[in-house]
Write a structure and sequence with these properties.
Elements lengths: L2 H9 L2 H19 L18 E4 L5 E8 L2 H6 L1 H18 L2 E13 L1 H18 L3 E7 L1 E15 L13 E6 L4 E2 L5 E3 L6 H16 L5 E4 L4 H12 L3 E5 L11 H5 L2 E2 L2 E6 L4 H10 L3 E9 L3 E6 L2 E7 L14
Helix pairs in contact: 4-5
Amino acid sequence: MTLSQLTSALRESRGFAHKRDISDIVSALGQALPGGIDALAQAVPVGDDCAAIPDGQGGYLLFAIEGLVEDFIERMPWFAGYSSVMVNVSDIYAMGGRPTAVVNALWSAGMDPAGEMLKGMAEASAKYGVPIVGGHSNNRSARPQLAVAILGRARRLLSSFAARPGDRLVMAVDLRGAYQEPFPYWNASTTAPAARLRADLELLPALAEAGLCDAAKDISMAGAVGTALMLLECSQAGAVIDVDAMPRPAGVPLLRWLTSFPSYGFVLSVRPDKVDAVRSRFIARGLACAAVGEVDDSRTLVLRRGGEHALLWDLNRDAFIGEATAHA
């Protein structure tokens, strides 16, 4: 696959399509609110992994929610339940926080598949040490649906709005896993020891509190490149990413990996003098971590491979997640 073909495939991927839908939601909300989207005043603008609300004591209350796609629930209800907690936990850590508790809302035709979803949620709750404290259920639904919300706290934020020209983009990911076939989910969580999972995630708030990093996002359904694009858009920046520098499991085709959703994966924007210190913390815990790109002020994302360059996205002409960029 040529670099041009790779960029086209990423633009047309399901993960990119889902993220582009965010712009419709944000625009509609902005039109509906008196005062527009600015009425949602908080510590960081709309478009970050969590809402961040000052707690009055120098820290922040974090609040987020995730929904699961229907085909995933129908085919893998246990893992969907597990993932609903896992991805929320990741959102909290991506903001430099620590999770406190989760609640869920689930719809099912009786206890099939509700029972399996609940078992998965309970397993993830125990493994990550985040209690399920309530929720809502409907066992008379025609189709299964699941959403989970999470609460957390942060002393110092990691934000999608803090990348700066001159930063290095750093990718950290746990390669000690396998695909949850047939889906693009790289699972390095369900068979890992609970203590290791928690300590690996603790790296994120520790980096924030040590002043080593202030900009990050967890890798989502848009994959590592799409996640970087969201980070850049929120920060009104651009970048060049070397796709060959991105940590990748042996034997996995590049396009599949770049459209994968890892159970543990983060893109960070790090000041150049802090890169070695950041990388060393991840590597010391057996996690793959590499500097994969340079942030600039172009508001374009260019992919590099060998001596080739290809424009993936021009934020000057085409928003990705949309209106959030106007409020950075």
